[in-house]
Amino acid sequence: MSARRDALRRFALALLAGALTVVLLWGAGFAWFLHTALAEAPPPPAADGIVALTGGAGRVELALRLLADGRARLLLVSGVGGDAGFGDLARLAGVDSHLKARVTLGRAAASTHGNAAETAEWAQTNTLHSLIVVTASYHMPRALAELGRSLPGVVLYPAPVQPASLRNGLREGNQAAVLRLLASEYTKFLAAEAGLSALIPARPGGTERHG
């Protein structure tokens, strides 16, 4: 009986050590994720195309401004929902309607994994070898993971948007809510890195929301 108790004790200690290791690794990764989400990013270099992943404010506007500034020749807005047309998006961004011929509105994607598939098809059709990726700062790691898997050999340049919900939450003392949001997105990023994107539910009626 003593040998059995010793074996059970060793097993329990091994489980505890394993759990602590997982927690420490998760915490170290989350610290990197926080730094990435909150850091200011330099302007992206010129590229063949731009893809904006819908789901939050400011993304399409930034992508259209980059297109208008000549950073790329084509733009895909992936995951467009409802009846939104180019005119609506152009008015929000304050850009000229002449850009319409260079913009594709993708309506098939309902998740980040879907965004990647939609982007891959568009990039291959247009023979694009480099892309500027526009999405929320804390969604960017997962977006790059999914796009990198779907677009091997295509160079990806991040152009993150700092969502107002993130900035306002930190200024107004809602750090707990911001940390919950970031922890949720970090966990989704880990799932995407592990190739488990199918387990991440899409938002009904459109692409996922990311602030």
Strand arrangement in the largest pleated sheet: 3-2-1-4-5
First CA to last CA: what distance? 57 Å
Tally the helices: what do you get? 7
- Beta-sheet strand percentage? 5-15%
Brief write-up:
With 211 residues, this protein is an alpha/beta fold. It has helices spanning 2-38, 59-68, 86-93, 112-125, 140-150, 164-171, 175-193, and strands spanning 49-53, 74-78, 103-106, 130-136, 155-161. The chain has two domains: 1-39; 49-199, Rossmann fold, CATH 3.40.50.
Structure explained in plain terms:
With 211 residues, the protein is α/β, with parallel strands linked by helices. The protein has 2 domains: 1-39; 49-199, 3-Layer(aba) Sandwich (Rossmann fold). Helix content is 51%, strand content 13%. The protein is built from 7 helices and 5 strands, in the order αβαβαβαβαβαα. The chain has helices at residues 2-38, 59-68, 86-93, 112-125, 140-150, 164-171, 175-193; strands at 49-53, 74-78, 103-106, 130-136, 155-161. The protein has a 5-stranded parallel beta sheet, with helices on both faces. Strand 1 (49-53), helix 2 and strand 2 (74-78) form a beta-alpha-beta unit. The protein is elongated, with a radius of gyration of 20 Å. It starts with a helix and ends in an 18-residue tail after the last helix.
